[in-house]
Amino acid sequence: MVLCFSLTLWVNPAQASIKLNDQFKATGACEAFQSIRKGTNPGNIRLTPNTIYPVTAKNKEDATHYYLKIDGADPSSRWVSIDCGQLLGTSIPQPPNSLNTDNLLAISWQPAFCETRPSKPECVTQTEDRFDASNFTLHGLWPQPRDNIYCGVSQENERLDRAKRWFELPDIELSDELKSELAIKMPGVESGLHLHEWYKHGTCYSATPEEYYRESLDLLDQVNNSVVQTLFVENIDRNIMASSIRNKFDQAFSNEAGDKVSIQCKRDNEPTNRKMITELKLNFKGNIETDTLVADLFKNGKTVTKGCSIGQVDRAGLD
């Protein structure tokens, strides 16, 4: 995955940016844009002629812009017109794990999460007929190892994120279609979770928030369209064993897929003190594109312990 960071809207929202590992020699003092569409250039950054910059992506196959790493700029990754210089065709040595293809997909059972965090805006508004009452929702897609975080993020933005001041972070640009879909399938958008996940994890995964969230939701959809989701819906208000959940992953995706899934549980508040299933963590290995199958990613994924052995599938609505 490309280790860079941008707040840009794709020129064609339906098409992913193309990842590159090259170098670019500037021939002019061209502007370096944070957003192609808006033409924004924080800090009035321009290229220095005859300087060589790392290139991590182009905006489309028939490119009009390259995505460069510019030291001293904030954000440091910018879009520059291809007319500003030329690619050198020289690969940039990558540090360890920079092309890492190990990822962990964390998906939530939102009703249980809301029992433990009832004051969250997305929990106050939850109803039994909303998407997250009967489907898994997106928590995040996390490049591994776990310390692979905040790639190219400024110290100030990292500080804001760690302080959970998520709505003070710069907004991210997504196509209208994806923005609407994300609001449904990631209820935490109401609390700024999408900003937190992009800055902490997404910047180490992809060149753009659009690509990061499009591919995350494609993986989530495959789980929600499987017998794993059916198992949870059919057992609302009942306990299910971790072994049953793992067996359904085997059935849905591939033998031993379940061994790559851990189950997370939390206790409800008193007096019920129920142990509820709040989240599943899926361990993947392999390059992820918009058409990548979860079954393929599970094949070489990391085998993990099952987590909690049994938990209740909570019903939407605060009890």
What order do the strands of the largest sheet run in, or round the barrel if closed? 4-3-2-1-5
Tell how many strands the DSSP assignment holds.
11
Spans of at least 5 consecutive residues whose pLDDT stays below 50 are 1-16, 92-100
**Content-based structural category:** alpha+beta
Biggest sheet architecture = 5 strands, antiparallel
Give the H and E element order.
Answer: EEEEEEHHEHHHHHEHEEHE
User: What is the CA-atom radius of gyration, in angstroms?
Assistant: 21 Å
What name is given to the CATH topology of the domain at 102-147 and 209-312? Answer: Ribonuclease Rh, Chain A
Summarize this, please?
This protein is an alpha+beta fold. The chain is 24% helix and 21% strand.
Describe this structure in words.
The chain is an alpha+beta fold and 319 residues long. Among the domains are: 18-87, SH3 type barrels (Roll); 102-147 and 209-312, Ribonuclease Rh, Chain A (Alpha-Beta Complex), CATH 3.90.730. Helix content is 24%, strand content 21%. It is built from 9 helices and 11 strands. Strands 4-3-2-1-5 form a 5-stranded antiparallel sheet, with no helix packed on it. A 4-stranded antiparallel sheet has the order 7-6-10-9. A hairpin with a 7-residue loop joins strand 3 and strand 4 (77-81). The protein is elongated. It starts with 17 loop residues before the first strand and ends in a 7-residue tail after the last strand. 42% of the residues are buried.
